[in-house]
Amino acid sequence: MLTGLRRRLDRFTAERVGQVRVLWRRSMQLRVVLSTLAMSVVVVAVLGLVLQTQIADRLVQGKEQAALIQADISRQALERDLARIDPDRDGAQAVLDDVLDRLSTHGQDSGSDGLARGSDPTSDAGAFDAVLIAGSDTVGAVPGALPTVPGGANVEVSAGPAEVIPPQLRAPVLQGFLATKYLTVASRGQAAPVPTLVVGQPVRTAGRNLQLYLLFPLSAEQRTLALVQSTLALAAGVLLVLLAGISSVVTRQVVRPVRQAADVAERFADGHLDERMPVHGDDEVARLAESYNEMAASIQSQIRQLEEFGALQRRFTSDVSHELRTPLTTVRMAAEVLHAQVDPDDRTGARAAQLLVDELDRFEGLLGDLLEISRLDAGMAELGLELVDVGAVVRRAAETVRHLVDETGTPLLLDLVDQGVDQGGEPGEPVLAEVDPRRVERILRNLLANAIDHGEGRPIEVRLAADDGALAVVVRDHGIGLRPGEAGLVFNRFWRADPSRQRRSGGTGLGLAISLEDARLHGGWLQAWGEVDRGAVFRLTLPLRHGERLRTSPLPLLPVAAAPAAAEPGIHDAAPTTGTALPPPDDDGDGGEAHDADAALPEPAPPADPGSSSVVR
What we know:
Blueprint: H1 2-26, H2 28-81, H3 92-108, E1 129-134, E2 157-159, H4 167-174, E3 179-185, E4 194-203, E5 210-217, H5 219-269, H6 284-341, H7 347-377, E6 386-389, H8 390-400, H9 402-408, E7 411-415, E8 432-435, H10 437-454, E9 460-466, E10 470-477, H11 511-521, E11 525-531, E12 535-543, E13 570-573, E14 612-616
Parallel strand pairs: 7-9, 7-13
Antiparallel strand pairs: 1-2, 1-5, 3-4, 4-5, 6-8, 9-10, 10-12, 11-12, 11-14
Helix pairs in contact: 2-5, 6-7, 7-11, 8-10, 10-11
Region (Disordered): 570-617
Subcellular location: Cell membrane
Membrane topology: Multi-pass membrane protein
């Protein structure tokens, strides 16, 4: 249970992180605002730290100066009061307590003279505690002990909280120096210890010197510094919010025209050639909009010219093809008459008559292909959809090229058993699909004729398979193959890998181009793969139901490494091979391009030079 909860939490976290990354990549305004805030936080933090340090230093320096002035005033007052008193006589403790009380009272009285802390504006050090020590010269004697030896020369007497004075501070005072130290002392009326500035100095009397220590709590400075810190934090927060708002507004003024330009460009790319950007003002964005509008107008004009030229060219081709049919029919009739009347013993005349009939057949086929290409280019082609057995369509296509198979002695192996059971039937059931049988048969006829032309008399394999949403027909030859980069060119009109190579099928050079357009009409794919001396593979993938979107193909495009078994010339039904069930398509719902399933099949990788592969949709 904990494992499942952890997985769900990890998945939720990954989704949120992915959404944040997508938002970060797609929103320039967000990036600018967050970058501005990040840099502002650094700047505000540095400035706040500097200001806080400067203020704290000034507070401490002012406190220390006032404390030194107050300590000097207190020392002078004590020296006047203790000028005739010997602290080594009996009753020194009472004298010290009395003097210390009067010193503390005067220190807290802002209206009295002499020791009044308000008598000098520069000596306003605030409330303080005082400690008087009259003792031995040995640091570390017990404070507050009464003299037990006559004269008490080596006994220390103190008044006030002498226990808080550390030996490190008393040593220089005993030597007659002024000393200061910062301590943490639990003062009267304070729940917790507070930082305290301690100032110590010697005081001359009628006998030996006394040690005077004044303790100045820094609680007021602490409160002042806390107030400064809270003020700086509040000001920093307000400043960051203002900076975020300002950067957002400024960035929006720049990003909004860019977004409008992107939207206009997308609509223009979708075919709305009249889309233009609004022009406001004379700034850089306005100049960009004007330049874009001029570019769009120029592209629109050129596209219209190309469309008109293309329409004129298609119409010209169609008209020429139609006009050539009548003279072609007349020439064919004359050629047939000549061919029938030629003397069989006249080999030259018979050969010429036969060549004339063959070329007329090829010319007629070329005219038919040109008419078909013209209809496809003009968008006038229509599908005659029927629910047919695709295996039967493949057989009819194979029968149409039987004469080529017999002439070249090429074995044609047919594997028309459906390997998939995703349709709910048993293996071997016919593959039923909603297609135009005439166009599908023409595609397969062109693929078979092309394979025979380039198969070098080696076996040609035709395989049919289907899954729950698509069917695939693979035609593979073992001939000269394709060089790298040629797999994407085989569907070009009148393209030939080797112009000097003779076509046995008498093709027109438009067969594969028409086949590609027929596959697109069905919403399918026509793909090619080839490698030099390993042959070529053509795969036709069509949806079982018209209008459904293809995501995977039931058959791999890359061939297996094993060579085909020897077969006699002719058309044969090959033994069914063992297929591999494909995993379900990765329907991520992103609306992207359909994915090929070749990588999911356990096909061996091609050699180091894999030849060329193309996916034409």
